Amino acid sequence: MRAPGGPEVAVGGVLLAVENVSLAFGGVKAVNDVSFDIRKGEIRAIIGPNGAGKTSMLNIINGFYQPQQGRITFKGEARSKMRPHDAAKGGIARTFQNVALFRGMTSLDNIMAGRTLRMNKNLFWQLLRFGPAMTEEVEHRHRVEEIIDFLKIQEIRRTPVGRLPYGLQKRVELGRALAMEPELLLLDEPMAGMNLEEKEDMSRFILDVNDHYGTTIVLIEHDMGVVMDLSDRVVVLDHGVKIADGTPDEVKGNQSVIDAYLGVAH
Amino acid sequence: MFYREAGQFKTTYQADQAVFPILQDRVGLALILIGAFVLIPLVASDFFLSVVMIPLLILALASIGLNILTGYTGLLSLGTGGFMGVGAFACYKLTTLFPGVNIVIWILVSGFFSTALGILFGLPSLRIKGFYLTVATLAAQFFLDWSFIRIQWLTNYNTSGAIEVPTRTLFSFPVTGPNATPQFRYLVILAVVTLLTWFASNLVHGRIGRMWMAVRDMDLAAELIGIPLYRTKLLAFAISSYYCGVAGALMVFFWYGSAEPGVFNIDQSFTILFMVIIGGLGSLTGSFFGAALIYGLPIMMKAVLHGLGINILPATVEHLTFMTVGALIVLVLIVEPLGLARLWQITKQKLRVWPFPY
Amino acid sequence: MDILYKILIDPFLQMGQAPDLLVQTLWEGLVSGVLYSLIALGFVLIFKASGVFNFAQGIMVVFAALTLVGLYELGVPAFVALGLTIVVMFGLAVAVERLMLRPLVNQPDIILFMATFGLTYFLIGFGELVFGGNPKKMIASELYLPSGAYDIKMFGGFVSLQKIDIAAAVIVSLMVISLAVFFQKTRIGRALRAVADSHKAALSVGISLEQIWVVVWFAAGIVALVTGIMWGARSEVSFSLQIIALKALPVLILGGFTSIPGAIIGGLIIGIGEKVGEFYWGPLLGSGIESWLAYVIALIFLLFRPQGLFGEKIIERI
Question: Exposed/middle/buried for A13, CB within 10 Å: 0-12, 13-18, 19+?
Answer without folding.
Answer: exposed
